[in-house]
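Hi Q.,

Before the meeting this afternoon, I wanted you to have the zinc ion prediction in hand. No need to reply - just skim if you have a minute. The sequence and ligand are here:
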Amino acid sequence: MILRARTVITNTGTPIENGAVAVAKNRFVAAGGFDEIRAMHTGEVIDLGEQVLMPGLVNAHCHLDYTMMRRAINPQRSFTEWILRINALKRSLDNDDYRAAIAKGFAELKQWGTTTVANIESFPELLPDMTPPPIRTWWFFEMIDVRHRLAGEETIAGTLSFFDQRPDWIGGFGLSPHAPYTASGKLYELTADASEQLAMPVTTHVAESREEWEMFRHGRGELHDFMEKLGRWMFDNQERRTPLAHIAAHARLGPRWLLAHMNELDEPDFALLAAMPQPPSVVHCPGSHRYFRHSPFPLKRLREIGVNVCLGTDSLASTLTLSMFDEMRILARQEPQLDPSEILKMATLNGAKALGIEAGKIAPGSLADLIALPHADNAREVHAAVIENREPVAWMMLDGKILSQ
Ligand SMILES: [Zn+2]
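Predicted structure with the ligand bound:
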């Protein structure tokens, strides 16, 4: 199949005017000028007209379970207050609510051009009855062992039973110890071992809030007191390591890890990342970051030391939409010096890289996930125009198949 559009953004070179893409089965074969592609490849030609054709968006951090929580929690005085509010809300919901939330979340992701999502699943027991996901989905099994710190092996064993064969599901499975304040060092250790043995990605929330920093570095503060009251064993960090150093002391971090947030880092943390031959990826969630009024995200430093930084929405309990266009716009406002083409890569290519898949770009052999957007005629620069898109995405290709919206 050959797809033609006014402009093609490949993420591997400059945008192609009057461009075309050749697709065979679920992979790209070639991209280039329309005449050149038509001369070299056979198959049906679909002309998308005055549109921009580009890789589908990759949301590298999402919690579809909480899609019904839009505007349900006003920004709180503290991060700990927010945890109390979401926990109370969760207690008022049942499995049918979560099933409905996941379906609604998928619809919203698709509407806004997301073709791949990394979804952290807090209720994996819902999965056996679920129909195959409508977009490429990585299900990360969330693990928490606050009160049962010796049950790590059982937690992992239970988790692995969740990865029963589901051949018609596109995407994959991963592990997600929730955060260093809710997952024990032992759980991180077992997760790292399982990830290596099974070549499985891992995601975790790290160094998100000032309260988390205070708990780890100073052994005090609101989150510290709350976790202590919950029964967490509080003597696991006598060295007063930072949240990142604490995880790194238990687990060998590498390219299979997606560290979400990473707002609170000190110089030794940057040195620790810089010294890793293959550092983990970092996921920034601009809307959620703004909601919580976290410390500035150290994007420039992380990029300078070669960390792959990608974008996610987080859940609707701390942001307003599941649109990656909104996330790109918030980031563009926060970081006006950042080139729009880089922002677009953070929302596509970098997320795919973090998940270890050949996607997020139009290159021979990579997965054929595409979206088309109306071409803005007055746009000086096509990447900036894409970031400004405010229309639902009307055309999408997923795994080589055109989806009707
Ligand atoms: Zn999260």
